[in-house]
Amino acid sequence: MAKDKTTFTCTECGGTSPRWLGKCPACGAWNTLIEQVANAGPGKNRLSAPQGYAGLAQAQAVMPLSAIEASDVARTASGIDELDRVLGGGMVEGGVVLIGGDPGIGKSTLLLQALDALQRVGMPTLYVTGEESGAQVALRSRRLGLDHSQVNVLAEIQLEKILATIETMQPAVAVIDSIQTVYSDQLTSAPGSVAQVRECAAHLTRCAKSSGVAIVLVGHVTKEGALAGPRVLEHMVDTVLYFEGDTHSQFRLVRAIKNRFGAVNEIGVFAMTEKGLKGVSNPSAIFLSQHSEPVPGSCVMVTLEGTRPLLVEIQALVDSGGPSPRRLSVGLDKDRLAMLLAVLHRHAGVACMDQDVFVNAVGGVRISEPAADLAVMLSITSSLRGKALPRGFLAFGEVGLAGEVRPAPRGQERLKEAAKLGFSVAVVPKANAPKKPIEGLTIHAVERVEEAMNVVRGLV
Ligand code: TYD
Ligand code: MG
Questions:
Q1: Region 76-281: CATH code
Q2: How far is ligand 1, taken at its centre, from the CA of residue 273, in Å?
Q3: Is there a contact between 259 and 238 (Cβ–Cβ < 8 Å)?
Q4: 140 Cβ inside 6 Å of ligand 1
Q5: Could you tell me which of 155, 189, 291, 430 has the fewest CB atoms within 10 Å of its CB?
Q6: Is 159 exposed, middle or buried (0-12, 13-18, 19+ CB in 10 A)?
Q7: Is this structure's pTM higher than 0.90?
């Protein structure tokens, strides 16, 4: 195949250069030149229409929204309930899903299980592996107990060959494991580079839309846990899923952070077993650690991301630090921690200026909702004072800079779940206090951080 010419375009100013340069010759910015296929002839994609654009192209017919038929999307349920839940009911025909997560968390395992389940109900599937050989994939399938699996495997990393195979074979679902290993002949940059990933993902997306094949792209993540490669990847695809969880613990969460065909922030919960990932249908209590006696620095909260409430233990350790004390958070936003420490100081008189502060959401779960604020503050205070919160205690609520405690969405559901699991005391925002009492649960409704601190002081 004749190679199309490539040029390098600056992401800052749009200037071009025939070669890669560290510095953009037009605007002087560093490291902004990205390789692109230049298959349009010189000047061909420049619009210059002194007489108006109607001379360049024909005007197209438009239609009012109401006249367009809104057909429901055709879905293919994978048969793995927890995965279908995050996808909003299953894979969508021609839909593209991007799934990211730490190495070894179980991306390949889950997708192989899903493809096998689809293949069993007669859907043709294709697993394109760029990271492992066919033999390694076969070994995994044996370990998963899928000895007679009919999933079609292709060990290939060249984009054009992969596209040709998908087009000819027309599977219902194709998995590309991973997008970082795929490369196109048309670009000279190395596989995994921003240009390659972007170009390959764009071609695969186009292929999905034109052929109706659902495509799942596996993506690597960076050290910070974000999907590696260009951000534009997330815009291109229909659904973005993240695998979360501690690789040392058994439980894994799959979270939808973008979904054009379903609710976002829906989560699927799995347990990694010897036979692969198994769905956990009643996950509410798996992120609590089992203390025989209440310990200082631990506070339970109820998080409600997606449709199911999850009880999660927030742990804090406050210890005397050096001249520049450290603030570290695992599973919670670091900037938010700094903010909460400032609010704690200003409005509740709890000073941690000369202390190291570490907070952790147990079980490797990531909590992005601000409803965790109150639990974070109470666990910090509990650790600082060396006093445990009472047995069966929980708290949730967003905390504002002025020291106010704001309600969390669907507070009743959170409280009911906690009561079901035997929790007996709750500190919650005033607006979340239920009108009718919940059996077995004493509720303290608070409006301000100071109030919450006073309630807790009265309890311990
Ligand atoms: P893998 O699915 O290859 O992860 P990724 O594709 O996200 O990098 O890794 C799965 C991990 O889980 C691996 O460390 C081994 C373990 N595992 C099990 O515990 N049980 C199993 O049945 C399988 C197949 C893997
Ligand atoms: Mg893998």
A1: 3.40.50.300
A2: 9
A3: yes
A4: yes
A5: 291
A6: buried
A7: no
